[in-house]
Amino acid sequence: MSEMKAEKVAVLGAGSWGTALAKVLAENGHDVLMWSRVEDQAIVDEINDHHTNKTYLKELVLPENIDATTDLEEAIEGRDVLVVVIPTVGIRSTAKQLNELIKEPKIIVHASKGLEQGTHLRISQVLEEEIDAEKRTAVVALSGPSHAEEVAVQDLTSITSASENMTAAEKVQYLFMNDYFRVYRNEDITGVELGAALKNIIAVGAGALNGIGFGDNAIAALVTRGLAEITRLGITLGADSTTFMGLSGVGDLIVTCTSVHSRNWRAGKLIGEGRDLESIQAEIGMAIEGLSTVIAAKEIAEASGVEMPITQGIYEVVYEGADVSETILELMRREGKAE
Prior knowledge:
single chain, 339 residues, alpha/beta, Rossmann fold, N-(1-d-carboxylethyl)-l-norvaline Dehydrogenase, domain 2, eight-stranded mixed β-sheet, 15 helices
């Protein structure tokens, strides 16, 4: 691993996770150029001039081998690996731009967690639709139990590099892997992406339980039954059931459902406390993927005939004005059956 040559990598997205991943890459000796939108010029200037990104990671000082730009063409020129770390809603438009700009094939890595609204596509599928096959060596999903705040301070972290192209998955594994950031390979990109997206819904529910005042017993039940829902839908959509027992399944579910670092958990807690969506979004200030993913998951479940009562309940609370306490009680009153 120490003998791996330095690579030129573009990290597209200068939020908390993109910044943390850029830091990992830079610490591994790679030449890292970050990209963010023109609207984020102040963040780009701060990264270049002060090696900080206080908007997203207040205490972090970035390595000096990280630069930033708002010019997407500049960001990807001469870069063999592109790491896309932006909210799901922006994936397709960014992929369209990349398709216009890419001149030679690149490994496209994404570290975002969600499903596209309307199409219900996983992020790798959106990237494959919009970026011509001859312009991408492979698409790799980087996912697992990981808070940006902890990765930024070199807390021990283990995640998954998933792709149908295992050569590319292995390259991404060694790009990122070091003493504190462990990466495992998985060829079930379907399961890895679904686990990453769907766990955010359960995290909203776990936060809501906390906000209402329920304790650990209730949250453990929700997380366990939530994993059963995720697995049922995943198998129906072609995933390997064992993936959901791994880092991007139960691992990601645990970390997202139990931590104040999780914006989905925090959003759920505020819902449980009776707050409205507009004020929740204003307070958290970043994309809350679970609140959009729950729409897609509900629609997929209905179309597939898969029973997902927790997802349905959270959808009703968020978008139909259902009372959160009553919805939880209704879930608990469901007909008894074998586990």
